[in-house]
Amino acid sequence: MPVVEISTFKINDQEKAETLLKEMTATLHRVTGVPLDKISVYLNEIEPSRWADAGVVGSDPEFQILSRRKNY
């Protein structure tokens, strides 16, 4: 029974969130052959202020640039 956790910033568009869950389920089923009723996929939506890449908090206005840095 596969369980897939997707950690992401909050997705404000319900339709997009549902599409992501459905597509992840369909892909896992197609690739592995696991029956659909045995696949669980869930979103772990994290506030940008509680997420950091390269030591830069997601709520930082420069996040997209600074989070790509390779050193301080």
- Find the CATH topology: Macrophage Migration Inhibitory Factor
Radius of gyration: 16 Å
Helix content: 25-40%
Number of helices: 2
H/E element sequence: EHEEEH
Which regions contain 5 or more consecutive residues with pLDDT less than 50? none
Write the layout of secondary structure elements.
Blueprint: E1 3-9, H1 14-32, E2 40-46, E3 52-53, E4 56-57, H2 63-66
Parallel strand pairs: 1-2
Antiparallel strand pairs: 3-4
Overview of this protein structure:
This protein has 72 residues and is α+β, with helices and mostly antiparallel strands. It has helices at 14-32, 63-66; strands at 3-9, 40-46, 52-53, 56-57. The protein has one domain (3-66): Macrophage Migration Inhibitory Factor (2-Layer Sandwich), CATH 3.30.429.10. The chain has 2 helices and 4 strands; from the N terminus they run E-H-E-E-E-H. A two-stranded parallel sheet has the order 1-2. A two-stranded antiparallel sheet has the order 3-4. The protein starts with a strand and ends in a 6-residue tail after the last helix. 0% of the residues are buried.
Task: Record keyword descriptors for this entry.
single chain, alpha+beta, Macrophage Migration Inhibitory Factor, two-stranded antiparallel sheet
Task: Give a nutshell description of this structure.
By secondary structure, the protein is of the alpha+beta class. It has helices at residues 14-32, 63-66, and strands spanning 3-9, 40-46, 52-53, 56-57.
